[in-house]
Amino acid sequence: MKTILLTGAAGGVGIHLRRELTGRYALRLSDLRPLKPLAPGETFVRGDIARLSDMLHATKGVDAIVHLGGYSVEGSWPAIHRANIVGCYQVFEAARRNGVKRMVFASSNHAVGFYRRDQVIDQRVAPRPDSRYGVSKVFGEALASLYADKYGMQVLCLRIGNVNPAPIDRRRLSIWVSPRDLAQLVAIGIEHPDIRFEIAYGVSGNARSWYDNWNAARLGYRPRDDSEAYAAEVLARERPGDPRAETCQGGAFVHVEEVENPAALRRKPRRSRA
Ligand code: 15L
Asked: In the chain, N or C terminus with fewer CB closer than 10 Å?
């Protein structure tokens, strides 16, 4: 069984992926925050992604890394810089030094959040980040490209939409990804023999999608879920928002300076309208 390192394992995405991937992989979980209880097959390594020594320890001997760690919403530049620029670099560099060849990088829909909602985009469009956070995800994708070309790493960058058991608002009807669909994409990133550097959208098979996710399909992705099943219920409770946010795919990220950090709201139901 392969051993997979999940960075940022205590975050919202980590919680879903642990549940979905357990039994298929031995999971080494890493986070700044302690993680308990652990399920069978899981081990925990405390680590700060911005410290190379911690990441050298965490990545040693694993078959692949799923890099989820970092600041997961718009924040101050020092916070984004430390976690998503320095931290992302240290994870790639530690992987290289330890000979880990496979990586799934958790990029985000916010790398392209300034595209309009009336456009359908694929993974080849030029980045249009909607925030400092979005810029940091574009940086991560660029780093993945460099490490693939220069060091032979095999990296799948997933521009993840919103991971939740169910979509929570109109925007998320277009970018929702169910935990099991995300796990399917992650497994493709770990297993697909021909990946060098790829970008795909981490979304379910939503009828209202803004993405032409043909690259994911080419790699074998067959989403099982579609947000349409929740649309009537979601739209019934929707209230008009800021017109700038409603025009762009990235929603409120196009105008807010800081979004409440989900890590600070741990374990509360996630109903942020960002
Ligand atoms: C993201 O990239 C964030 O990590 C997540 O917290 C959500 O805000 C999501 O995008 C979204 O766009 O809903």
From this structure: N
- Percent residues over pLDDT 70 in the chain: 95
CA-nearest of 92, 81, 90 to 136 is 81
Single-letter code of the amino acid located at 180: R
The predicted model scores a pTM of: 0.95
Token match 């043909």: residue? Answer: 214
Tell me the average pLDDT across 41-61. Answer: 97
How far is ligand 1, taken at its centre, from the CA of residue 12, in Å? 10
| 147 catalytically annotated | no
93: Cβ contacts below 8 Å, ≥ 6 apart: 52, 55
Please provide the average confidence, as pLDDT, over all residues in the chain. Answer: 94
**Ligand 1 site-directed mutation target among 108, 210, 211, most atoms within 8 Å of CB:** 108
Kindly report the protein residue whose alpha carbon is nearest to atom 9 of ligand 1.
162
pLDDT at 265 (0 to 100): 54
Q: Which atom of ligand 1 is nearest to the CA of 250?
A: 12
Q: Which of 25, 89, 115, 133 is catalytic?
A: 133
Residue 203, pLDDT above cutoff 50: yes
Contact 116, 257 (CB under 8 A): no
- Per-residue pLDDT, 261: 72
**What DSSP element (H or E) covers 167?**
none
- Show the ligand 1 pocket: residues with CB < 6 angstroms: 72-73, 108-110, 162, 172, 262, 274
